[in-house]
## 1
Amino acid sequence: MSKSLQLKEEGNRHFQAGDYIGADGLYSKAIIADAKNPALYTNRAMARLKLGHWESVIADCQTCLALSPQNMKAHYYLAQAQLSICDYDSALENALAAHKLCATTNDKSLGAVTTMVLRCKKDRWGDREKKRLRMEREVEDRMLALLRKDRDDMLATEGDETERSIIEEETNQHMALLSSVFEAARAQNQKKREVPDWAIDDISFDIMVDPVITKTGKSYERATIMEHLRRHPSDPLTREPLSAADLRPNLALRQACEEFLDQNGWAADW
Amino acid sequence: MATSMRTKRVAKERQKIDKYGLPPGIELVDGNDLKEWLFDIRVLDNNPLYNDKVYQLKFVFSESYPIEPPEVTFVDRPARPVPMHPHIYSNGIICLDLLGNQGWSPVQSAESVCMSIQSMLTSNNKNERPPGDEEFVRGNKQRPRDIEFLYHDNTV
């Protein structure tokens, strides 16, 4: 065994024992001995994920992807680190790349990666929602300030007491109306949140990310139906024989689920 | 991530029950834990065998639920006896293909299992235990889902 692989093995042992700092150091030495092995970078990225060193996880994954562009683990760890530093778009992009690789290679991590895709979508939606609400508040405050300014301008040139009180009253009405319109919009946003049945996988009860359809016309999340087929190669509804090769992606449903999640990110974790 | 699938799935079944309720005669009495639930179950028609009686089902969800079936047995307490049925042993073990590894399907749920057991009682008119009940109850150390049941009487 080469020096580099020996160091890697030793790093793995430290990692298993929970000594992530030690593992990080050993993987670094392994990389010095052999800078061209992609697995060394993903292993070090995994140790650094545990340590919360997000920026160096990102650097390791990018080095790995330069050496091996189809590396599922690199995309997966990259997504986790990017999510931790709130880079939602990149995180989702890499989670989806990892998911695609898992689906083509029938990788055991498909379930975990699917969960990661959902988390990225939910967090990205949450972030956008927060920004949108903040902007709404700002617009409301600005509009109210303009109404007040308008009133003050009119009062400055109006001497008649009756006219003055009419101006005051009108402004108060307008301000109340404006606030109630914004309030109604916010309430509308909080309206009852329901996930439609068509978007839900009947095995995990999660919203679907990559629905696949069986001979019966029923769709399931790829990760969970694969998990089921590993143990029982049968259709969950009819119990007729079913193999992974019989599954077809349901593209229209996939798109519908995506659109629903874009508007209703909370649903990723209903 | 089988662990997280169990946790989420059971939590969501719970949410659905809280939102939509359960069919008549079935009631969740303890569902706070995500590993073990208790249901009270009654038969709705006037079947003289089960009339006016309340039974209790215990569900144990393994890490691999719902890929693997839950372990479902009748509890045996003074107020909650084990119902008399040719497919139910006196220690509460239920002989139902749905609950075995072969008959189970991950699209089933705690609710659908309760309904199957309820209808299994409703349609029965034999006041008896499975053949070899005493011997089985004395000797059995296996977990219910691993038992290869022999279906002595498939007409029930």
## 2
Amino acid sequence: MYMKKSKTRRWCRSMEIIMLALITLFFVQCKKEVSGNQPNGFDPSKPIVVDSIYPKEGGVGTNLILYGQNFGNDLSRTKVTIGGKAAKVVGVRGNSIYCVIPEKAYDGDIQISILDDEGNPLAEGTSKEIFSYVRKWLVSTFLGKYYEVSSDFEEKEGPFNDCGAFKGILWFSFDPLNHDHLYFTADANSCRMIDFEKEYVNYFRTGFSRTSIISWDNDGDMIASDNHSSDTKYGNYIFSRSSGFTQKEAIPVYARGVNGTMIHPNGELYYSRYRAGDVRRYDFQTGEDKLAFANPYSAVAVYMVMHPSGDYAYLIEYEKHFIMRTDYDPVKKIFKTPYTIAGAAATAGYKDGVGTSALLNHPVQGVFVKNPAYEGNGADQYDFYFCDRDNHAVRILNPQGRVSTYAGRGNNGTSGYANGDLRTEARFNAPQAIAYDEERKCFYIGDAGNWIIRKIAQEE
Amino acid sequence: MIKKFLLLLSIVLLGVCSGLLAQEEMTVTGVITDMNKVPIEGVSVSVLDAPGTGTLSDKEGRYSIKILPFHTLVFTFVGYEKQKIMLKDQKVLDVTLEDAKASVLDQVVVTATGEQKKISVTGAITTVDVEQLKANPSTSMADALAGNVPGIQAMQTSGRPGSVSEFWVRSISTFGASNSALVLIDGFERDLNEINVEDVASFTVLKDASATAIYGSKGANGVLLITTKKGKGGKVNINGKVEGFYSELTKLPDFADGYTYASLANEAKEARNEEPLFSKDELEILRLGLDPDLFPNVDWMDVLLRNGAKSQRSLLNVSGGGNTARYYISGSYQDQQGMYKVDDALKEYNTNTNFKKYTYRLSVDMDITKSTLLTAGISGSLRKQNDPGVGSNSIWTALMGYNPITSPMMYSDGKIPSDGDDNGDRFNPWVQGTMTGYNESWQNNIQTTLNLRQRLDFITKGLTFIGRFGYDTYNSNYILRKKHPELWKASRYRNTNGELVFQRVVEEQKMEQSSGSEGDKREFLEWQLNYDRTIGVHNFGAVAKYSQSGKVFTQNIGDDLKNGIAQRNQGLAGRVNYNYKSRYFIDFNFGYTGSENFHKDYRFGFFPAISGAWNIGEEPWLKNASWIDMFKIRYSYGRTGNDNLGDVRFPYLYTIEQNVGGYNFADFTSDNTWSGIHYSAVASPNVSWEIATKQDLGIDYSFFNDKFNGAVDYFYERRTGIYMARNYLPGIVGLESVPSANVGEVLAKGFDGNFSFKQTLGKVELTIRGNITYSKNKIIEKDEENSIYWYKLEEGHRVNQARGLISLGLFKDYDDIRNSPRQTFSDDVMPGDIKYKDVNGDGIIDDNDRVAIGATTKPNLTYGFGVSASWKGFDVNVHFQGVGKSTYFIEGSTVYMFSTGDGWGNILNEMANGNRWILGVNEDPNADYPRLTYGANANNNRASTFWLRDGSYMRLKTLDMGYSLPKSLINKAHLNNARIFFIGTNLLTFTGFKLWDPELGSTNGKVYPLSKTFSLGLSVTL
């Protein structure tokens, strides 16, 4: 009996010891996890080593992963500089760091610092490998505020850094005589004038309920169009430069549903009519108004962009998802019946390709931009960049009729709001307006769905 | 009267005897008590082989009898074992009578017309062993029926606390509105789920027409009869039981981690010549866990679900009474907790799903006169349920939809993430489970029953009148308090500065309240006359019954007058039976019942059934074979009906509506429009109930003193007149709406049976038992669109037959595709896509090649078997349950990997690591999963044998172990019985289906799984 008891007791004791050991172990374990080397996983007695980096080259915004040792675990105490610029560190895990290449990190040398409580470096390490920095064309946000909560939307005049958001940007137009003034129309929303000199955005009031387009005559006066639905109202008005574009005078011809206007270097005004489905020619000298040609479809918003030479113009058939070309007859001084140049009529889609094999989805404004690569080719030297609204992209139509995608739809996506590399990152949301700034060598994109103006430019 | 007469007789006789044998006789006295030491009055005491020498015990259990030495005294009393004691010369003999062990011949069965001896039953009736149902930890008895009761097939399709099983008697034999059985508790139609199993005295399942014809147009889908416990006279009997549960989910879907998910997504993109979804650097970031915002690795199941939940139940019942009145009172409480974790910061309310059930029951039996028994009963229940605001279905949709990198639990700046809105379905699971408020719902029920039983022996011997009245009120309410925080979604990419770009996907909603209720009241009235008489070898019985019932909705009935009209039923029923020497039985019964839902010409129906039995065991030429206790063959043939049309009220009435528009009888600008009227629903005046014509052939047996016993039944049922819409009437008929008619026909047949074997090995008492139910049905006629291909019709196939294409494996290469019939579902079929069989041989694969494949989701075979053993105080009971002949398709965003194309849908580990067709790596045409696609794949993602899974399983349903404390110990504590027990349920599951719990029958796994439960309890009898 006694023997038995002592056995049990011994067994109990050994259990006790085991339990004690387990508990101790538990605490040790905990301690290791909680504090360990300070700060957080960093061992000051050891050096910070960068073994390798991935990827080896890229530009601003590229994700960079650093592999090495003794990086610690504390995000707030890890600092990485690349090419002398502080890089955003997103994650750090002992043997790896994820950071984002900052702007203008041209030199590409990588330095890691672990900071103490006051933010002073405790230890530093340098990567042997140098990141090769490439200057890229990038999409950025130029003007306007992006609202994460859409109901916070504000519309106002103001300096570039506080000018609210812009709804419905439809058409950009530079003042041909003052390159610091860029106008845009916005259909039923307010038109604006962007003043690059004063860095200020003003309202531009036309007095129309829907302003579709602004163009300029050869005297430097502005022609703005009222997109109304009445057969007995004037559609196009001249805003005189002399009045500071505050006085308007109607062109005395009834015009319903004007979406596109253009003025030929010879001085005639051409305007498209939505319901009638035609393009008419108006002569300022004689006051004669006549049909230039019938559009193959009616009930289409036809936007028109003239080639700088005046030899031809592109007609962007919004609802029918394709682009036509009309050539100028220099003898009769009139544009001729158009023909399809890109996209399949009445078929929406997204596809790069030549002529009708390319697919578009609600294209809007386009702009001719001289391409230095074509110099010496003699013939046409301009590419046509246009906003493909519902494909959320800026696309290029080259002189041979090939359509390709220039910017947007980043990372296999469609719409969105993302800046950065033109094709791998950038996203637009229903871009409609586009302008090319010859002086500043950049594009402005009216990002109608994001209510802001985006900019495409090469990194300086 | 008789007593006095007997006493007088015995005195006289004793006097005679004493005169004869005066000198040798002695007088023996003593007290007769039961096991609880309570004296028994009226025990007959007699001397063996000395007819006429009897006496009875008095109120104190005392008796006194004269007997010669070395003679045997016999003590008999109803309900107790007969005892024989040989006397030498003692003068005082106290006797304790033991409770009677029921013999086969004495066993009674509760049937539609009252209690009946088992031996005389001619229909297919199963008596459920209520003890077997008690181990079930669920809140409803329905969950314990599958595998325990022959003739019942059941399926538990959700494990959420408070959800209950669906079950069918024998087979689904209709595609009409209702295939569920009629449940009668104490004679009235009441809810099975609200009764506490401990209050059940008897539970029988009536399966064939002879047992259910009495219920007329309500009996076609089988009937469950439950009677509740009543008080017994004598000492107060107190029973208590407490039980604590710990439950875990049986089987959770096992999902791949973030890195595996992303790699597979890239594989899916690349397999279809698209750019990979994640770049190399992003995969590295994910692998290293460097971006917890955009590339987290969340195990959502782990985030939201607990490892286990604790629940409990307890009950107490008290019964007792005296000679003139007896009572039974019981109360129970059950609390079942769910598996959702709760936000610890939330103190005001609980978001976890749970279920609480309170029941009470009072029943008093009063002997108003010697021949009049009045029973008054009142019972009720309160069932409370809690669920997170968005509801459990939404949560499980999100748990299956959120992949590990969809979003983190919380963004590093404190914003709460969500993939989208979709009425809450796309909120992240943690938000759904803890931040959307809660839904509190409850159901309560009060039932009153009054029962009068008057023996009318003064008219003719054996005649009894029974009157029953019931009044129930039921209501069900909910208060939903819903809210959600502001939810954000980070854009897929960081901006050039490496910062997150957010978009608010859901606006904040402050807590908002909504509520609803429904309720009904029911009234029942029944009169019944019973007649039972034995004259010599002839045994007669007859029953006549009148019943009426009404149910009316009391809340939320809207403005449609039809909703406020009570649903009434009325019926006459009767039964005549006769048996000769308990050997040949014949039984005729009928129901003549009506429902106010039908046109008056079709309102009442006559449902007769006839049955007979031959008890071979009672034949004289077998009387010598004493090992046969009972061997009975029975057969029944009859009709019953099913008047349940679902929500359709008064189909014989038409509805007239005013036309839209019309003609303006006035000048332009004035308005004097007249519009016509038209039938918006034509009347279907000939509509009536479904008719089930049932046949049943069965054998009941009991051998070797009930050591072996069991029953086997073969059934054959033809269901005609199934109510359905006539959707395919030709347009030439010119009807504006679709009328309905009783046109469908289904044939169902199958068998069910059970056996048990009892054996005592030393001190071990062993019982082995098993049961099986198998059924197969076939649609004979259904109003459906004609097809040139017979196999496209539902006719000739099972009700709810699974249909799809026949898969021939995966395409080997492009040559294989070129040389095979063209598959029309998709333009670019590639090697590794599913290849289908061209059933009709027309050279193309399309919907005309869909055929019946597999069986049905609901099982067609259910079985159960088990062993129980007891040794001294210990007892063990093991019960297995299984189903077969069940198949279902698996589909949905987790099975059709990446099919939504927007990252919705998690990926199962089984699929990630299984034998998958991979371009250039594993081009196995017999792989288990096809070539991946990112986005929809109309060729692969459709019902076919490729995705058909066998739903059969077998599981260790119950393991019940107990120890009854020794009497010597508990008697000191003034207890009668005390048992400590452990019960485990769903402990083991054997199945070929590995993705989630096979019993759920779920095609996509988006349901609350079933639980594995361990419970520990104590039951005490005072």
